[in-house]
């Protein structure tokens, strides 16, 4: 009988990888505790180590991006408002002629 593939959340993967990075218990014990294949724990640990620097880079980029997104939203709102006003005034001018 085939077992269903489990889909693990990023939070769960991070928890397992962090536990593996601490090296307080063996990979085999961690795998047994979470009912995972030890190779998967190794993979998640390696991926966490590889991408750890990105977390700190994205913190700054994410903050800058959030400010840019807010500004973009504000500008789009203003463009929409001005477009409506322009259309309204154009129709009023057309009626006068």
Report the biggest beta sheet as strand number plus sense, adding barrel if it closes: none
Radius of gyration: 27 Å
Average pLDDT, all residues: 85
Distance between the termini: 81 Å
Amount of helix: over 70%
- List the domain count as a whole number: 1
What structural class do you assign from the helix and strand content? mainly alpha
Count of distinct strands? 0
Provide a brief overview of the structure:
By secondary structure, the chain is mostly helical. It contains 3 helices and no strands. Helix 1 (10-22) crosses helix 3 (38-96) and helix 2 (27-34) packs across helix 3.
What order do the helices and strands come in, and which of them pair?
Blueprint: H1 10-22, H2 27-34, H3 38-96
Helix pairs in contact: 1-3, 2-3
How is this structure best described in words?
The structure is a single chain. The chain has one domain. Helices cover 82% and strands 0% of the residues. The longest helix is centred in the last third of the chain and has 59 residues. The radius of gyration is 27 Å and the shape is elongated. The chain starts with 9 loop residues before the first helix and ends with a helix. The model has no long low-confidence stretch (mean pLDDT 85).
């Amino acid at each position: 009988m085939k077992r269903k593939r489990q889909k693990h959340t990023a939070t769960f993967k991070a928890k397992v990888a962090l536990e593996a990075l601490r090296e307080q218990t063996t990979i085999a014990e961690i795998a047994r505790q979470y009912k995972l294949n030890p190779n998967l724990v190794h993979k998640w640990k390696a991926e966490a180590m590889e991408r750890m620097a990105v977390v700190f880079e994205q913190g700054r980029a994410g903050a800058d991006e959030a400010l840019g997104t807010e500004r973009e939203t504000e500008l789009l709102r203003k463009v929409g408002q001005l477009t409506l006003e322009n259309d309204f005034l154009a129709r009023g001018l057309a009626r006068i002629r």
